[in-house]
TrEMBL record:
<keyword id="KW-0503">Monooxygenase</keyword>
<dbReference type="InterPro" id="IPR000896">
    <property type="entry name" value="Hemocyanin/hexamerin_mid_dom"/>
</dbReference>
<dbReference type="InterPro" id="IPR014756">
    <property type="entry name" value="Ig_E-set"/>
</dbReference>
<dbReference type="InterPro" id="IPR002227">
    <property type="entry name" value="Tyrosinase_Cu-bd"/>
</dbReference>
<dbReference type="GO" id="GO:0005576">
    <property type="term" value="C:extracellular region"/>
</dbReference>
<dbReference type="GO" id="GO:0004503">
    <property type="term" value="F:tyrosinase activity"/>
</dbReference>
<dbReference type="InterPro" id="IPR005204">
    <property type="entry name" value="Hemocyanin_N"/>
</dbReference>
<feature type="domain" description="Tyrosinase copper-binding">
    <location>
        <begin position="397"/>
        <end position="408"/>
    </location>
</feature>
<dbReference type="GO" id="GO:0006582">
    <property type="term" value="P:melanin metabolic process"/>
</dbReference>
<keyword id="KW-0186">Copper</keyword>
<dbReference type="InterPro" id="IPR036697">
    <property type="entry name" value="Hemocyanin_N_sf"/>
</dbReference>
<dbReference type="InterPro" id="IPR037020">
    <property type="entry name" value="Hemocyanin_C_sf"/>
</dbReference>
<dbReference type="GO" id="GO:0046872">
    <property type="term" value="F:metal ion binding"/>
</dbReference>
<keyword id="KW-0964">Secreted</keyword>
<dbReference type="Pfam" id="PF00372">
    <property type="entry name" value="Hemocyanin_M"/>
</dbReference>
<dbReference type="InterPro" id="IPR013788">
    <property type="entry name" value="Hemocyanin/hexamerin"/>
</dbReference>
<dbReference type="Pfam" id="PF03722">
    <property type="entry name" value="Hemocyanin_N"/>
</dbReference>
Length: 688
């Protein structure tokens, strides 16, 4: 095993002392005596001999000058950690910097080992994961799935006593799988519970965590300053909202009402029924019809008023309407067609790249804080933040979609001011898309019908059960799934020569929750990207087939729920390439909207755009692992692989004469639509 992979031992069982065995007791980290904390140093020799006798592998840790960790003072080791709290973000940036600066892997291993038992567990895990991904000598180390490290942030806590009992009493070969009940946060008397399958999906919440891991908002400039980072912040979250709204229509629910009025009661309540394993305290609930209040938290120094949020929002609106933002020196930075959305993304979030935090504030992050502390704004009751205060849990709460709907509205305001795409920007002379459709992979199934159903899958949670049993402890959970299918597109190239093009496939709902047809102006906001790929067009007719599991938006189940541990890394070179860090991407099982038993109709849209206007000049290996979910996550260490604006061709308004999708498509031979139906079968099928 490489030295870099030794770092994985530090990520297991985050709250256990580092000297306890890892990898089911097979691996032990040999600590220098002064690396032990004050509690364990007096009995260090006894501990080392007691826990290391049966180890198959010993990881030596060399002595180093111990780092100054004062930047994390006040963040309790067993307390909560949030990327939305400025003090916590600053500590994370300092720790990432510390890890990035180490000259080699062995020194990083020593420094990280020293830090592990002295810092907040989530802070440590986050900073080490970011550093490992961004160092040249460790970037091929596989970051384990966060559900296996902190299952308390994804799973009904009622299963933990059962998991510990099964693991402690029953031998490995006889252990049963413990089932996690679906829809445990509310009854069906609550209409919003119809969307629990989406909001509380483990893969969806892990996607949100992993995206923020790949695109941290603070840290060394080389880590934060990625190509089109601000635009990706806009686009990924915008697609989340569009997907959520589509599934709301399928569930006969109205579109999300944006949280634009911060002075009215929040009608949605949310009772998460989750426990933080670090201190065994529950995530606080939010009752219905509570008002937002000014936050003044003496525990972590977070001070922000509702008026601050309104002022920052209004200043950003003013900047959009004027067409520029001001930097700290008073210079105008234009919000043009090319860079405007990227700059706005940095301003709204606000990442460390924002040109003027003093003027435009930190709208997105502080909004999360104001909502997450709504139950105890001044620390009167010593309560911690609710689920909106953590990127791993925020998407569980209905208010997440209302808040991000408002954020998306800000970006859309800018997009509405841009000039509509002209015929040259939309067209592709010589290329005609003659048909598009979908076909299930099973033989003898009707064309243009997709099927969804429930699937029961398993995940190993042993690595997150601190002070729990050795070996594997599996839990099963139920999630949406779709039958495998393919997109089939027929494209005619009458240019007489071989050409390249970019095939873009989208779907959008035809009607809202009442069955009322959507105008194109409305429908445009609900188009979701299904796949984008580069295609080679021979002269004449070409038939292009793209399997659903090849989507540029998604990652497969195995990557979402990857195994953990130094022993779980494959040794075969090809397998290792596929296993490398590939955790960022929308979960494959959520690619298709849920639909309904009677079937929901969607518009399927395909276009082949001009490759010359799409392509980005850079060296990219098309077979490189982890390049397959670039739509939301970009390419690692590369530029975003599509020169067009994210969301093209639906990200801008159209001329007033375009009232329907047909009006938009008909003038452009390189576009085609079809009607597809999504049928939901209310049965549960076990993953084979």
């Amino acid at each position: 095993m490489s030295d870099a992979n030794n770092l994985l031992a530090l990520l297991q069982r985050p709250l256990e002392p580092t000297f306890l065995p890892k990898d089911d007791g097979k691996t032990v980290i040999d600590l220098p005596d002064d690396f032990l904390t004050d509690r364990y140093r007096p009995i260090g020799a006894e501990l080392q001999s007691r826990f290391s006798n049966d180890a198959e592998q010993r990881i030596p840790v060399r002595q180093v000058t111990t780092p100054d960790l004062s930047f994390a003072n006040g963040i309790d080791r067993r307390g909560s950690f949030s990327l939305f709290i400025p003090k916590h973000r600053d500590a994370a940036a300092a720790l990432i910097n510390l890890f990035i600066q180490q000259p080699d892997v062995a020194t990083l291993m020593s420094v990280a080992t020293y830090c592990r038992d002295r810092l907040n567990a989530v802070l440590f895990q986050y900073a080490l994961a970011v550093a490992v991904q961004h160092r040249e000598d460790t970037k091929n180390v596989n970051i384990p799935s966060i559900v296996s490290l902190f299952p308390d942030q994804f799973v009904d806590p009622a299963v933990f006593p059962k998991l510990r009992e099964e693991g402690s009493v029953v031998q490995q070969e006889n252990r049963m799988v413990i089932d996690i009940p679906p829809n445990y946060t509310a009854s069906d008397r609550e209409d919003e519970q119809r969307m629990a399958f989406f909001r509380e999906d483990i893969g969806v919440n892990m996607h949100h965590w992993h995206w923020h891991l790949v695109y941290p908002g603070d840290g060394p400039d080389a880590v934060v300053r990625k190509d089109r980072r601000g635009e990706l912040f806009y686009y990924m979250h915008s697609q989340l909202i569009a997907r959520y709204n589509i599934d709301r229509f399928c569930a006969k629910l109205k579109k999300v009402r944006h949280l634009t009025n911060l002075r009215e009661p929040i009608v949605e309540g949310y009772f998460p029924k989750m426990i933080r394993s670090s201190n065994n305290r529950s995530y606080p609930a939010r009752a219905a019809n509570i008002m937002l209040q000014d936050i003044d938290r003496i525990d972590n120094g977070t001070i922000v008023s509702v008026n601050d949020l309104e002022r920052w929002r209004d200043r950003i609106h003013e900047a959009i309407d004027q067409g520029f933002v001001l930097d700290t020196a008073g210079n105008r930075i234009p919000l043009d067609e090319e860079r405007g959305i990227d700059i706005l993304g940095d301003v709204v979030e606000a990442s460390s790249l924002t040109p003027n935090r003093q003027l435009y504030g930190s709208l997105h992050n502080m909004g999360h804080n104001v909502i997450s502390y709504i139950h105890d704004p001044d620390y009167r009751y010593l309560e911690d933040y609710g689920v909106m205060g953590d990127v791993t849990t925020a998407m569980r709460d209905p208010i997440f979609y209302r808040w991000h709907g408002m954020i998306d509205g800000i970006f859309r305001r800018h997009k509405e001011l841009l000039t509509p795409y002209n015929a040259q920007q939309l067209g592709n002379p010589g290329v005609t898309v003659s048909s598009v459709g979908v076909q299930l992979s099973r033989p003898n199934t009707p064309a243009n019908v997709l099927l969804t159903f429930w699937q029961r899958s398993q995940v190993d949670l042993a690595a997150g059960l601190d002070f729990g049993p050795q070996g594997n402890v599996f839990a099963s959970f139920t999630h949406l799934q779709h039958a495998p299918f393919s997109f089939r597109v027929e494209v005619n190239n009458d240019s007489g020569a071989v050409r390249k093009g970019t095939l873009r496939i989208w779907i959008a709902p035809k009607v809202d929750e009442r069955g009322t047809a959507l105008t194109f102006r409305e429908q445009r906001l609900y188009f979701v990207e299904m796949d984008t790929s580069t295609v080679t067009l021979n002269p004449g007719m070409n038939t292009i087939v793209r399997r659903s599991d090849q989507s540029s938006v998604t990652i497969p189940y195995e990557r979402t729920f990857r195994a953990i541990g130094t022993k779980s890394t494959p040794s075969n070179t090809d397998d290792l390439a596929q296993f490398r860090f590939c955790g960022c991407g929308w979960p494959q099982h959520m690619l298709v909207p849920k639909g309904s038993p009677e079937g929901v109709q969607f518009d399927l849209f395909a276009m082949v755009s001009d490759f010359e206007a799409d392509s980005v000049v850079q060296d990219v290996d098309p077979n490189a692992p982890c390049n397959d979910s670039h739509s939301f996550c970009g390419l690692r260490d590369k530029k975003y692989p599509d020169r067009r604006s994210m969301g093209y061709p639906f990200d801008r308004r159209t001329e007033d004469t375009v009232r329907t999708l047909a009006d938009f498509v008909t003038p452009n031979a390189n576009m085609k639509t079809a009607t597809v139906q999504v049928k939901f079968n209310n049965t549960v099928i076990a993953r084979t």
